[in-house]
């Protein structure tokens, strides 16, 4: 167990982070970054608070059921975080309850993990028991069961486990992954090569990476291995033009710029001004010279720039907004922020983005459609429907893009699409399809 006073204080701060995530619809990293006391505290405290808050949110349904609350929205953040601390063996329940009582918090429920497990096991309905055990919303569980089949429990358990700390070697600043590993080891950071993506590295200790010379020198970016595989599937040609249509904060944008060796052009676009601003900050540290950013603000000027670039692009990456079911380990709040109405709206957006990309795509160019979803209706079903609407498009099997050695372990059963899951590959759940228009 950790130092008890620090752990107890972290439980209180984590509860405040969870409340802020709810109130402001934030992820845990953003909520931690906005917490004034945590900004002034130690790196170790921020790491511990983020760990507790992530567990409290990701396992909220099971934790809440343990202290008698059925609705996640009704569960007190402090009870969730306290129960998470005990479950993670950071402190004993009795000691934590006594300390909380001394601070005037006498009504905090903190069951033992064995008590919670027994209560969950006693649920008669098998589907409800599975939903509570793995903290899955009722609306999405039948979809995940249909998609995952006999692997559903293994996949859901993996989605509830901590995500690895994965880095991408910035090939604009280091020769290769081995060079990054050497730099990290020189700073006593324990790291190993990842299994599938050639640029991916897993950090195996809890060192503060942002305090390293390797970070300050722009030698790496934090990026899940699945996202790095998606960039590999884009496979931009030397000196090519790539449109990153939904760039977010730009992880794939920066990887594409590095894959082009700072040559060619990458246009990164997004409807969020905040995400565009975040990307602009990252570009300087990564030393990218071939990236242009564009805020899609609905103005005729922005739309004109987008279209003029898109019709001449060699690759159009559509990293579409989705349910995020494959990334629950990293974004636990996504479990509770969407419902069936949101899913239908996202499917409409996915269709619109695919149609726009297909309308721009020149002969010989490719679309890479990607999601961090495990749901077929957001993945291959969207692609199949797009092929019917746009019969001049063709699917490129992943082996044709990446080669058999790289593609076969990360492709779906038919070999057509990138399809990875945390229980099978250790990375986020992710899907990507490569579509081309023949010359």
- Which oligomerization state do the chains in this entry correspond to? single chain
CATH topology-level name of the largest domain: Rossmann fold
What fraction, in percent, of the residue positions are helical?
Answer: 40-55%
The count of strands amounts to 12
Q: Any idea how many domains? A: 3
Percent strand equals 5-15%
Structural write-up:
This protein is of the alpha/beta class. It folds into 3 domains: 125 residues; 58 residues, Sun protein, domain 3 (Alpha-Beta Plaits); 212 residues, Rossmann fold (3-Layer(aba) Sandwich). It has 23 helices and 12 strands. The strands form 2 sheets. Strands 5, 6, 7, 8, 9, 10, 11 and 12 form an 8-stranded mixed β-sheet that branches. The protein has a 4-stranded antiparallel β-sheet with strand order 2-3-1-4, covered by helices on one side. The longest helix has 21 residues. It is globular, with a radius of gyration of 22 Å. The protein starts with a helix and ends with a strand. The mean pLDDT is 94.
């Amino acid at each position: 167990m950790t130092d008890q006073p620090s752990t107890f204080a972290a439980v209180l701060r984590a509860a405040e982070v969870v409340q802020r995530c709810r109130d402001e619809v934030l992820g845990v990293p953003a909520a931690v970054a906005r917490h004034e006391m945590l900004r002034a505290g130690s790196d170790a405290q921020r790491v511990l608070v983020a760990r507790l808050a992530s567990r409290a949110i990701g396992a909220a349904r099971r934790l809440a059921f343990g202290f008698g609350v059925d609705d996640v929205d009704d569960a007190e953040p402090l009870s969730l975080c306290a129960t998470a601390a005990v479950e993670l063996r950071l402190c004993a329940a009795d000691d934590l309850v006594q300390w909380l009582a001394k601070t005037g918090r006498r009504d905090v429920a903190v069951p033992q993990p064995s008590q919670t497990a027994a209560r969950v096991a006693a649920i008669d309905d098998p589907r409800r028991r599975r939903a509570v055990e793995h903290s899955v919303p009722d609306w999405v569980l039948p979809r995940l069961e249909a998609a995952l089949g006999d692997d559903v429990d293994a996949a859901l358990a993996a989605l509830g486990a901590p995500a690895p700390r994965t880095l991408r070697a910035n090939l604009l600043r280091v020769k290769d992954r081995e060079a990054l590993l050497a730099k990290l080891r020189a700073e006593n950071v324990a790291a190993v090569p990842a299994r599938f993506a050639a640029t991916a590295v897993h950090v195996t200790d809890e060192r503060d990476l942002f305090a390293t010379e390797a970070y300050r020198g722009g030698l790496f970016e934090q990026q899940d291995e699945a996202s790095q595989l998606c960039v590999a599937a884009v496979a931009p040609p030397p000196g090519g033009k790539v449109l990153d249509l939904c760039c977010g904060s730009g992880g794939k944008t920066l990887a594409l710029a590095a894959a082009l060796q700072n040559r060619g052009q990458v246009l990164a676009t997004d409807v969020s001004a905040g995400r565009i601003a975040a990307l602009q900050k990252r570009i300087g540290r990564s030393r990218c010279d071939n990236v242009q950013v564009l805020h899609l603000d609905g103005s005729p000027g922005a739309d004109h720039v987008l279209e003029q670039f898109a019709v001449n692009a060699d690759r159009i990456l559509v990293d579409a907004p989705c349910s995020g079911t494959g990334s629950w380990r990293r974004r636990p709040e996504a479990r509770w922020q969407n419902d069936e109405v949101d899913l239908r709206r996202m499917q409409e957006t996915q269709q619109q983005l695919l149609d726009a990309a297909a309308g721009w795509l020149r002969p010989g160019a490719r679309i890479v459609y990607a999601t961090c979803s495990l749901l077929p209706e957001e993945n291959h079903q969207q692609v199949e429907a797009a092929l019917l609407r746009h019969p001049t498009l063709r699917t490129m099997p992943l082996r044709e893009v990446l080669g058999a050695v790289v593609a076969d372990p990360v492709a779906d059963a038919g070999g057509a699409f990138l399809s990875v899951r945390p229980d099978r590959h250790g990375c986020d759940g992710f899907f990507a399809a490569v579509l081309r228009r023949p010359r």
